[in-house]
Give the backbone structure.
Amino acid sequence: MPRINGDRRLPSLPARYDKIQVPLWVLVVGLVARLLGRLVRLAVRHPFAVATLVIGTAFYRSTGLLGFGLLAGVVVLVAVVWRLVHRCSFDRAAWWAWGRVRLAFVYRRRWRAATVHCGLAIRIPASNAEQVTFDEYFPRIRTIRASRTLDSLWVELLPGHTPETWAEQAEALRHVYRARACRVRSGRVGFVWVDFYRRDPLAQPVAPYPVDGPDVPGGGLENLAVGRREDGRPWLLPLRGSHVLVAGATGSGKGSVLWSLIRELGPAVRDGLVELWVCDPKGGMELAAGSPLFARFAYDLPAIADLLDDAVSRMRARADALRGVARLHRPTRDEPLIVVVVDEIAALTAYVTDRDLKRRLSASLPLLLSQGRAPGVVVVAAVQDPRKETLPFRDLFPVRVALRLVEAEQVDLVLGDGAHDKGARCEDIPTGQQGTGYVTEDGAAEPLRVRACWPDDDEIRRTVDRYGIPTAEPVGDPPALPAPTVTQELVELLRLRGFDHIDALPVPARRRRRTTRPRARWAWRRGSRPGGWVPDLTEYGNPWDHR
Ligand SMILES: Nc1ncnc2c1ncn2[C@@H]1O[C@H](COP(=O)(O)OP(=O)(O)OP(=O)(O)O)[C@@H](O)[C@H]1O
């Protein structure tokens, strides 16, 4: 009769182990050896802490409390002098020491319980006939990096675990350690970084970084420092050889990302290595302030279509010239990097009603996005609604930034599938934290939380004054004339040209009422200006044209 279990043997049943009688001295020697082994292991793993403890105890025993206090005073004095002389190395050492303290007293203290309760430890049943037991395996913390904002633990994965296993438990770990946030980043194979954030470095607006001089973070067109990362380091955006899409609901701060980028390009614009071709389909309101920095600036649809067609022509000419010479264009003064900036790209794709314009725009934009990277014509675009119907060629942008979004589903549309599950909660970004968002970086599996710098109007003005090109001519309707300064000479000149009286000008109704006020008329007749009253002649047109 065939056996139910085939030819396999039955698993062995737990059985009572034989007891071995050992002499007492063997037991004592064994325990002492074990204790010594643990001490040696402790000294090897924590040499600094053990050395401090040993030296401190020895000093205390040989000199007493006074000597020990003196030693502590000398240590503090050395630390203060060190900090004053070389702040950078002092900070590094201080954060290192602080990290060790937190590792010992915060993380290691609750580590075993935390990993068991979050399902990150492995328990294998090892019961025998006498007792129910488990063999437990805990993930090991290999090292810690502490900084002002976060503690990063470098953890060795147990067999069968992946970075995703840990990412799923990030929220539970956050609560165990009372952290503001916990994120998991994959590291080398078999390891993960578990970041516990104590403070939010992005809570306050980020001041713009210097763009000139020795303190410039990043460097080059591959690393433009446009904001701050959650770990406190500068957020570096690659531009050369890439296209950048910034998606965010209205008022989420897309403008600050665009302005930070434009500001960072200021020195390269001044040196002639970059040309900014800017399209502002929202009527030029957002970006017009920077027009002296722009080689081309268009804010009505026909002008934008012309600009994009010209960009395609330049791209094709360059591609012909570079064929067989280089695989990626290197910006020079003769052939600068062309950065096409488009604020609200949906206005060029989804909301155009004119058929001809629509045809031209829907041909040029995908061409630039699919072929412009290598010949040095890159596109930086902002969009409010990232859905496929609004932006059909969204996937052609290698670098995508998601600011505050209206719906959770939009996160994956911008950053790629699974980004929301990996922690990019763009719908939870507070409305008051404009410029905050998530970005996926090359090689990083998890989205990175960032906040764009906030260049205010004064900073934009300073940038324009410093790096603007005086010859730049805007494309589109001519700009409004600046209000002329009304001086006595101007009034005399107007009289000479046939205007005997200021009332003879073609005054609009509202103005006429104002200029006929007795005080104002008196002032004009006397040829002086009453304090604080500056007549605005803009509505008259250019006074030099009145003949
Ligand atoms: N990085 C930032 N830091 C602090 N405040 C910011 C930042 N970015 C924007 N703001 C504030 O938010 C306001 C709206 O920003 P912005 O105009 O850039 O939004 P937007 O996304 O471009 O909106 P829309 O799509 O409606 O033009 C700004 O006027 C400014 O006060």
Q: What stands out?
A: Residues 488-545 form one domain. The pocket of adenosine-5'-triphosphate is lined by residues 205, 248, 250-256, 384, 434-435, 452, 454 (CB under 6 Å).
